[in-house]
Amino acid sequence: MPTTGHRLLLTPAGDVEIEDFAVPDLRPDQVRVRVHTTQVSAGSEINGVRRRRAASAQEQVGFAPAGLGYTAIGVVDAVGRDVDGFAEGDRVLCGGNHATHWLVTPAAAQNEAAIPQEYRIEKLPPELTDEAAAFCVLGDVALHGVRKAQIQIGESVAVHGLGVIGQITVQLCRLSGAYPVIGVDLVDERMALARQSGASHTVDAAQEDVVAQIRSLTQRPWRWRGALPGLDQGAGAEVQIHTTSYIGNYPILLKAAADRGRIILVGATSGSVAIESQELFRRELQVTGSYQTGMIDSHPYWPWTRARNQHVILDLIRRGELKVDPLISHVVPFSEAPVLYDQMAQGGQGWMSVFFKWGAAPR
Q1: Residues 6+ apart with CB under 8 A from 154
Q2: 178 occurs within a structural domain
Q3: Considering the chain, what is the average pLDDT of its residues?
Q4: Is 212 in the same domain as 333?
Q5: What is the Cα–Cα distance from 300 to 311, expressed in whole angstroms?
Q6: Which H/E stretch holds residue 335?
Q7: E strands, the chain, in order
């Protein structure tokens, strides 16, 4: 008799529903994971929900129902005959949807055209909880951005957006020796958490002039010379890391940058915005995207693959140098998912990292 499970489904109108499904048969090259815990991505997932809810009724007709998910942790309950390296009972992390079961095709890891969820599977150390271990995925997004920034000890950094990736970025910047580390956000509780995470200062983008505050907080005993008129109030941030989905503040980052400052755009912010070209070339600013394209294999110019970054994050968590427990706001049964998605779609108040528990699947 087929195994029956539960999963979350995003409707064309942007509602989140729970549905039963028949777990597909296992192919010889696949591993089946019985999922215990899943973590919500506050970026790609919640943005997808918001886009559907903001679409017109006519646009929604063109959407298909879709799965939701980013990171899943569970136990291997079946292994195809062609798969090596995994056995029933192994505790693993994978890129699964929010569901009781997920099928992984490990061999697809060598195919860069494959969907990441098809091949992401890693054995987990026993000493970490499901919730702590899950942060290695969002953590590797943050770590890649920090690596791209090439932060030197004593450089000033501003982190724009203090969701989960922003909070981890703040901690990694402090571990890299940055000072000051300035967190920028609109939500009071997220700014308070950033100060707990290691931000030396925070700026309320809803109430304060972000450019003026960053330039004031990055004053040095010396003065930078050659700034454009009106931008000589302070040194500006030598590094800025953008971790929000809001593209409209790109011009702010240019104005808040130090001469020859570095700006790292983490993730996949969509849309377009006009910027002043004089800011870029006269002050020699560097703007770099951070999306981990082609990060399956290491090479001499960039040894930090996604898998290696995830292991680094897991080790930092295990050693207590990266603190993720304060970032967890909800650990709830999957039955509460529809209500929580409604809350998350409304804005950043009242939640941070959300986890769903899946229990035992009915047979």
Answers
A1: 177, 178, 179
A2: yes
A3: 90
A4: no
A5: 19
A6: none
A7: 4-10, 16-22, 31-39, 66-67, 71-79, 91-94, 101-104, 121-123, 157-160, 181-185, 201-204, 237-242, 257-266, 286-290, 328-333, 353-357
DSSP conformation class of 315: H
Q: Can you count the helices (H) and strands (E) in the chain?
A: 10, 16
- Domain enclosing residue 253, as ranges: 137-290
pLDDT in tens, 187-219: 999 999 999 999 999 999 999 999 999 999 998
Residue 312 lies in a domain: no
- Let me know whether 148 and 115 are in one domain: no
Query: Could you check whether the bond before residue 24 is cis, i.e. omega within 30 degrees of 0?
Result: no
Structure tokens, 294 = 């082609």
Percent of the chain beyond pLDDT 90? 74
- Integer distance in angstroms from the first to the last C-alpha of the chain? 8
In this structure, what token pair is assigned to residue 38? 């899943």
Contacts of 89 (CB under 8 A, 6+ apart): 75, 76
In a domain, residue 111? The reply is: yes
What amino acid occupies position 345? A
By CB atoms closer than 10 A (0-12, 13-18, 19+), residue 171 is buried
Looking at residues 326-338, what average pLDDT do you find? 97
Residue 363: per-residue pLDDT: 35
Number of domains making up the chain? 2
The pLDDT-based confidence of 269 (bands split at 50, 70, 90) is confident
**Torsion angle, CA of 61/62/66/70, rounded to 10 degrees?**
-120
CA distances from 19 to 10, 74, 117, 130, 308 (A): 10, 20, 20, 24, 36
Residues 88 and 151 occupy one common structural domain: no
Average pLDDT over residues 78-107: 94
pLDDT of residue 267 exceeding 80, the answer is no
Residues 41 and 84 in one domain: yes
Report the candidate in 35, 41, 30, 110 with the shortest Cα–Cα distance to residue 74. 35
Pick from 33, 4, 39: which is nearest to 105 by CA?
Answer: 33
189 located within any domain? yes
pLDDT at 336 over 80: yes
Other CB atoms within a 10 A radius of the CB of residue 332 amount to 13
